[in-house]
Design brief:
Layout: H1 2-8, E1 13-17, E2 32-36, E3 40-45, E4 50-55, H2 59-69, H3 79-86
Parallel strand pairs: 1-4
Antiparallel strand pairs: 2-3, 3-4
C-alpha cells in the first residue's frame, strides 16, 4: 500500500521493508537504485520525484540488527516475537473538524 501512495503523490518519502518472502510491487521495475548496503536500499521513483528507503531484509530483523549494532539492551527474543509485537492492532484516534 505504501508504494501505491508513492505512485500517486509527488515528492513522497517512503520507508518500506524488503520482505523477501512477499511478491515485489510492480513499481520496482520503474525505480532507479541510488544506494545499496547489507541493511538498506534507496530508490528514486523519477515519475513523482519520490524516494523509497527499503530496510533489508525485514523490518523486524533490521531493528534487531540496529539494536545489536548500537549495543542497546532490550528484551526481544527473536524476529517472530518482534513481528507479533509490531503487528498488534492499535486503536487509531482521529478528530473531525
Amino acid at each position: 500500500m505504501v508504494l501505491d501512495v508513492v505512485q500517486r503523490n509527488i515528492s513522497t518519502l517512503a520507508i518500506v521493508d524488503e520482505d523477501p518472502d512477499a511478491p515485489k510491487h510492480p513499481i520496482y521495475r520503474e525505480l532507479r537504485h541510488i544506494y545499496g548496503s547489507r541493511h538498506l536500499n534507496i530508490y528514486q521513483y523519477v515519475e513523482t520525484n519520490s524516494i523509497i528507503i527499503e530496510i533489508r531484509p525485514r523490518l523486524e530483523g533490521w531493528l534487531l540488527a540496529m539494536i545489536n549494532e548500537t549495543k542497546q539492551t532490550m528484551h526481544i527474543r527473536d524476529e517472530g516475537f518482534l513481528h507479533a509485537r509490531l503487528s498488534a492492532k492499535t486503536k487509531i484516534c482521529s478528530s473531525h473538524s
